[in-house]
Write a structure and sequence with these properties.
By secondary structure, the protein is α/β, with parallel strands linked by helices. It contains 14 helices and 21 strands. The strands form 3 sheets. A 10-stranded mixed β-sheet has the order 8-7-9-6-10-11-12-13-14-15, with helices on both faces. Strands 16-17-21-18-19-20 form a 6-stranded mixed β-sheet. It has a 5-stranded parallel β-sheet with strand order 3-2-1-4-5, with helices on both faces. Strand 18, helix 11 and strand 19 form a beta-alpha-beta unit.
Length: 492
């Protein structure tokens, strides 16, 4: 398996016996403004650890960490390390390049250098760890399970790759036994985790800048599952997750003590049925013939739209029950989930047009959220679905351009922005036009100038329409501006 970005830094298994966070000395985060990095930093600050860090640009997350006592800097420079030396720790993510001046200086000073995943393992040491992995649905499922445990008074620690609406946070230390974490497969770093319990939502081709093939990804998830001690819960509806489960069940191979499944498939241990969209919510039933509580039958409603979110909620329900939380308490808790930011998040409604924001950046994710939006416009009266999509990464755009186009074909109209580069350098000929041209029926336009998009959509949207801003980049900034433009349109 390729894990190119980790080469020379860490190897799978480094987190099997992690250094407890208290033993890391003072800790500097290079790239502290990222969702995962800022969450780990927040937890370390709560434990009284001296934290500093830097990021390429200012952000609200940096402001929050500064208010909590971190020494934060905008821009990367060797001087940002201050007086740190041997016995102190530098934490960095895969996005940090090998020539980063802070990494070079930390190495020169003899500091400990850890990948973000190993730092996460350090803050989870000594807790019952539940890790949520999968190509899609990780943040939502992690958020749902965190909400359930909070509502069941378990006071879990958690690190989510997003922000939980109920708390306004992406991470907290908690005082309970359990720690819930999102496990990132994108760079192979989830192999540094050794959780007690894991959910695998699905296994598909993605991050092919780091993996050689789908088979390579399946191998990585299998290795991840073999590092789980107690329970792996997989989706019975997903071919990739089923393949991984079958490998974990092979006699004579390492793996968890128990394997359980969930989904709509007849053989699922926790079977999902009767899924019905109800505006910005979805209702469903879950049944299990055997659980720690015997036979289970539960009717639930979760306050986020889409069939895929019924599946995510079933995963969270099944995990919580398997962890020992009573099914009636879990059912009641899931009803109090209010979503995670950037996961079909409502940004506002003006002049009869609803604006939602979605982090979807893979064709499967776009299709799932656009189907959910289609349910919304059908209630109470037919409207249109308008997608504003910003491709994320040049490599992903090149590899999946046709699939992105097919997914956007589920919208009535689509606007495609240029590629959000993130950690990659531009590739000649790879632009958002590749995606726009692949949308069937000529229903998409390529608008490389983001400043034009708000006016284009505000002029086109009609009462009853739903507009989705979609992508992992800064397309999220357009939602509030579009709501303002729609308000101005009606003279409000």
């Amino acid at each position: 398996m390729q894990t190119q970005r980790l080469t020379g830094l860490l190897t799978p298994g480094d987190a099997a016996s992690p250094v407890p966070a208290a033993g890391l000395g003072r800790v500097h985060f290079t790239g502290i403004g990222g969702a995962g990095m800022s969450g780990i930093a927040r937890i370390m600050l709560a434990r009284g650890i001296t934290v500093s860090g830097s990021d390429a640009a200012p952000s609200a997350l940096l402001d929050d960490l500064l208010a909590l006592g971190a020494d934060v800097h905008v821009g990367h420079a060797a001087d940002n390390l201050g007086t740190l030396g041997p016995g102190d720790t530098l934490v960095l993510s895969t996005a940090i390049r090998p020539d980063n001046p802070e990494l070079a200086e930390a190495t020169r000073r003899g500091m400990r250098v850890l990948h973000r995943a190993t730092a996460l393992a350090s803050v989870m040491a000594g807790r019952r760890v539940i890790a949520v992995a999968g190509t899609h649905g990780k943040t939502t499922t992690t958020s749902m399970l965190t909400t359930i445990l909070r509502e069941c008074d378990a006071d879990p620690g958690y690190v989510i790759g997003g922000v939980l609406t109920e708390t306004g946070l992406g991470a907290a230390d908690g005082g309970g036994t359990d720690f819930v974490a999102e496990a990132d497969e994108s760079d192979g770093s989830f192999l540094m985790l050794s959780p007690d319990v894991a959910i695998i939502t699905n296994v598909e081709a993605d991050h092919l800048d780091n993996y050689a093939s789908l088979a390579d990804i399946e191998a990585a998830f299998t290795t991840f599952g073999r590092g789980v001690s107690t329970l792996v819960l997989t989706c019975a509806d997903d071919p990739g997750a089923k393949l991984v489960a079958a490998r974990l069940a092979t006699p004579g191979t390492p793996g968890p003590a128990r394997l359980r499944s969930y989904g709509e498939s007849a053989g699922a241990d926790y079977r999902l049925t009767d899924v019905a969209s109800r505006g910005m919510a979805v209702s469903f039933a879950v049944a299990a013939q055997a659980s720690p509580f015997g036979e289970v039958h539960a009717q639930m409603t979760v306050q986020v739209p889409g069939h895929h979110n019924a599946l995510n909620a079933t995963a969270a329900f099944a995990a919580a029950v398997e962890l020992g939380f009573a099914p009636p308490l879990v059912s009641a808790a899931i009803a109090r989930y209010r979503g995670a930011r950037r996961r079909m998040e409502v940004k506002g409604e003006e002049d009869g047009v609803r604006v939602l924001d979605s982090y979807a950046h893979h064709p499967t994710e776009l299709a799932a959220d656009l189907r959910a939006a289609r349910d919304l416009v059908a209630q109470p009266a037919a409207g249109r679905v308008i997608a504003i999509f910003q491709p994320h990464l040049f490599s992903r755009t090149r590899i999946f351009a046709a699939e992105f186009g097919a997914a956007l074909g589920l919208a009535d109209e689509a606007v495609v922005l240029d590629v959000y580069a993130a950690r990659e350098d531009p590739e000649p000929g790879v632009t958002g036009a590749l995606v726009a041209d692949a949308v069937p029926g000529g229903r998409a336009r390529f608008v490389p100038d983001r400043a034009e998009v708000v006016a284009v959509i505000a002029a086109a949207a009609r009462p009853g329409d739903v507009v989705l801003t979609m992508g992992a980049g800064d397309v999220t900034m357009l939602g509030p501006r579009l709501v303002e433009a729609l308000r101005g349109r009606r003279g409000g």
